[in-house]
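dude i think i finally got it to work??
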Amino acid sequence: MGIKLIALAIGMLSVSAQACNTAENLPGQNIDLYFQKNSSRISADQALKMANWAIDMRLKYPIQEVLSIRGLAEENEREPENLALQRADKAKTMLMQFGLTQVPYDIRGGIYRPLVHSVESPEKIRRVEIELSPGCPDNCCDGK
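look at this
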């Protein structure tokens, strides 16, 4: 009986250890910022929205694995590839000012390409998509 109990305990430990191998069980945290046509300027309301989000992320997730920032521009905007990257770079600069400095950044830009049967308003197309991937101590996110 004692050997079976020890084997069961070891088996349970290995199962819980497998559950803690990565931080994959924490979902990414997202925010989108919106821009005026042909502009990379972050408006006051979008800056406030991003400041509140950054503060929340720092408080909720003191360990951060990566911050992905993807700037998007409409095809008919002036120099859309450059504009998309400028939008992403400005968002990164502002996030760093708001204290998200201890995390690697992945910056990308691109021209918005609609999906088939997808209709988005131009105001929603001109954006920066930001996603924070939270981390955990020792890659263990089981709350212990």
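The chain has one domain: 26-136.
im so relieved honestly
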